[in-house]
Specification:
This protein has 710 residues and is an alpha/beta fold. Among the domains are: 57 residues, no CATH class; 85 residues, Immunoglobulin-like (Sandwich); 137 residues, no CATH class; 176 residues, no CATH class. It is 38% helix and 17% strand. The chain contains 23 helices and 24 strands. The longest helix has 27 residues.
């Protein structure tokens, strides 16, 4: 038990307070980055309880709060949702009051397919399954239900006085296992941020037509998947907030990825085509294509202008009069249901002062319709081209507090709190990601409906889904909304239920699951990932036996997506030149010169170890056999590293286009916001040249060949 903070004498303290903190999942300690057991201060834990809507003072009636919690958490007989193994008899934990032991219950179970089962029982006749600390309860009884097929089924319990309906989630033992994995194949892929792609035809940032072209080129070279950044919608009213990991709503797509010129409402609309063909417009497009950084503000303006014109045409031709295209839109809209309707209304309200069609909810439905169809076409092309997986989408850990996802679910999200991470050497003040967390109690009370929505929407039109910060299914670091001083505490989540739902949706969508498990990872998460067949996520730089020696590629985790690099670490060229460290110094991320010197010393140790590592693998290029780490990074060394990674035991290995072009500039520097133009840097090479340039193609071919021979 953590001691009370002596600097906060007015704080309430006692066994009941500790119970309240524990019941809300607010942990009292954790294992930090150094592997040390670290206590969480009592005041920090109480602060997190306050962020959940329960601010305590010395005069708070904690006993009443405990009773209220138990009443809400108990859920009247059964939780709102219970996960069980499909095709197996299951026992549900039925909580009954003293006066209900001899009450006649009727139950009726309706499966997703519409089949119905029913029966009756007296709680006293059921086997005991545990006790409860709630004085009004007689205990927990085991209510046995027959084997069920995988799916969401509805169970209704009924007495003469009351009735309750709950969801039974019957899940497979593991996530979807595709044929290529069962056959032991090792696949090669590419990790790309869609907006960074250059082409001769896009409007200043990569779009879905670029993605389709990338997929065709990648498949033609032997790649089997393309890992993407989160495609969630961002805030067009605040283009500086361009991180794909801080979206407005994770359930909807970013309309800026729409290629307007391939849509019928553009092709069949001469006045819109004439508008785009104007010399001034074409000149502006050329300027936007030529920039080194994505100009989100300008791109958003011109795309929304043209999309507004297209929507007017669509409304006149297909909504105000009958047409097959209009019927297709209405059918799609009906299938999307209430969630899309509320989202569109929210977006229209945010854009109510817009001179474009953005002030109309129907316009936002239209944008999502176009975006989803274009994304689907990309995945269809990937599979038609022979890719084993195709697209790998990415689900961010949270959404911006100003967006639709948080605003439309006010009971679920805690807007005064933020998700983050405790202090570590790279972020000694901790991390605050500015994303409100979900209240785990409310999540459970609502039958995990929002989590299920997120999975369904993000598993659509892809072969695999990478879940950012997979640890969030078990715990999240909560901190005050605007705090950047390291205050906070870990909050537990119902991991068993969330992983059960993940397994079910993975099967239903035929979608492989990859969990981003970098950083501090509790062993419980490793266990859940293993038994659920969730792929791990490795980074080449961190694959070591110990702080010094790099791991032999044959010893890498086979059940993993191994990345040579990603958006949170330097490119290979920058890592070798130490350009990332120089940038950190320029920005002021090192606390003092000694910290910088230590980082350089550690990096140079890594560089010499890599040369010995490659030598041991018989891959060290001839011009590097003098082990001179101060030589400029070149294609020979890059190819050797790519071949080494390609030969790893990991089932999936991906490379970045940046490393095919020896790019040094990062796409993101963790721990910065305005100090560096994160999420804006474009690739220096056009998409048309990435797969045909002699140097980049040689590197790619060597990587694919090594992968085939692994």
């Amino acid at each position: 038990m953590a001691d009370p903070d002596t600097t906060q004498p007015a704080l309430p303290f006692g066994e009941e307070v500790q119970q309240l903190l524990a019941l809300h999942g607010i942990q009292d300690s954790f294992i930090n980055y150094a592997g040390e057991h670290q206590q969480i201060t009592y005041s920090n834990r109480l602060a997190v309880l306050g962020l959940m809507g329960l601010p305590l003072t010395a005069s708070s009636d904690v006993g009443a709060l405990l009773d209220d919690y138990r009443e809400r958490a108990r859920g009247h007989w059964l939780p709102a949702a219970t996960a069980v193994a499909c095709e197996h008899t299951a026992g549900l934990p039925l909580e009954v009051a003293h006066g209900e032991l001899d009450t006649g219950f009727e139950w009726r179970l309706v499966t997703e397919a519409g089949d119905s089962l029913s029966g009756s029982f007296l709680p006293r006749d059921l086997p005991e399954a545990g006790t409860s600390d709630a004085v009004e309860l007689a205990g927990i009884r085991r209510l046995e239900i027959p084997p069920l097929p995988a799916g969401y089924h509805q169970l209704t319990l009924k007495t003469a006085q009351s009735e309750r309906q709950v969801t039974i989630i019957a899940t497979p033992e593991r996530c979807h296992q595709p044929d290529w994995n069962a056959a032991g194949r090792r696949l090669a892929g590419m990790s790309v941020h869609l907006y960074e792609l250059r082409s001769a035809r896009n409007w200043g940032m990569g779009d879905f037509t670029d993605l389709a072209a990338l997929v065709r080129h990648a498949a033609g070279t032997g790649l089997d998947f393309v890992v993407l950044n989160p495609l969630h919608i961002l805030d067009s009213l605040a283009p500086e907030n361009c991180s794909p990991y801080s979206p407005l709503d994770r359930r909807f797509l970013n309309p800026l990825y729409i290629d307007v010129e391939c849509e019928p409402d553009y092709l069949d609309h001469p006045s819109v085509r004439d508008y785009v063909a104007r010399p001034a417009f074409q000149s502006r497009l050329a300027e936007l294509r030529a920039t080194e950084l994505v100009d989100y503000d300008s791109i958003s303006h011109i795309k929304h202008t043209v999309l507004s014109k297209m929507f007017k045409r669509f409304r006149e031709q297909h909504l105000e009069q009958p047409s097959p295209r209009g019927d297709a839109f209405r059918s799609w809209l009906q299938n999307k249901g209430e969630v899309l309707r509320k989202f569109g209304e929210f977006q229209a309200h945010r854009h109510r002062l817009s001179v474009h069609m953005a002030r109309h909810a129907e316009f936002h439905y239209y944008l999502q319709w176009l975006a989803e169809a274009q994304l689907k076409a990309c995945q269809d092309q990937a599979r038609e081209a022979g890719m084993a997986i195709g697209l790998v989408r990415d689900l961010a850990v949270g959404s911006d507090r100003n967006g639709a996802e948080v605003h439309l679910n006010p009971q679920l999200f805690c807007p005064d709190a933020s998700v983050g991470a405790p202090p570590d050497p790279l972020a000694p003040q901790g991390q605050n990601w500015g994303l409100p967390p979900m209240n785990p109690l409310v999540l459970k009370q609502t039958g995990y409906a929002h989590f299920i929505e997120l999975l369904k929407d993000n598993m659509a039109h892809c072969g695999a889904l990478r879940i950012d910060h997979i640890m969030s299914l078990m715990r999240l670091w909560w901190c005050p909304g605007q705090d950047h001083t390291g205050k906070g505490a870990y909050v537990s989540y119902p991991a068993a239920d969330l992983f059960a739902i993940l397994k079910l949706e993975s099967h239903r969508q035929q979608c492989v699951i990859i969990g981003e498990d970098l950083g501090i990872v509790p062993p419980e998460i490793r266990h859940l990932m293993g038994e659920s067949a969730v792929f791990s996520n490795l980074l080449f730089y961190f694959e070591k036996y110990d702080p010094i020696h790099f791991r032999h590629p044959h010893d890498w985790n086979p059940n993993a997506l191994a990345m040579v690099a990603n958006h949170d670490v330097p490119t290979l060229a920058a890592w070798w030149s130490k350009r990332d460290l120089a940038l950190r110094e320029e920005i002021g991320l090192f606390a003092n010169p000694q910290e910088m010197a230590d980082a350089i010393r550690a990096r140079e140790s890594d560089l010499i170890q890599i040369l010995h590592w490659l030598n041991g693998l018989h891959l060290l290029p001839e011009n590097w056999r003098d082990f001179n780490i101060h030589r400029i990074f070149d294609n020979n060394l890059c190819q050797a590293i790519l071949q080494a990674c390609a030969g790893s035991a990991a089932r999936l290995v991906s490379i970045q286009p940046e490393d095919l072009c020896l790019v040094e500039a990062p796409i993101n520097i963790p721990g910065t916001s305005r100090e560096y133009p994160n999420w804006q840097r474009k690739l220096p090479t056009a998409l048309e040249d990435l797969f045909s340039g002699p140097d980049s193609r040689q590197l790619l071919d060597a990587f694919v060949a090594a992968r085939r021979n692994a």
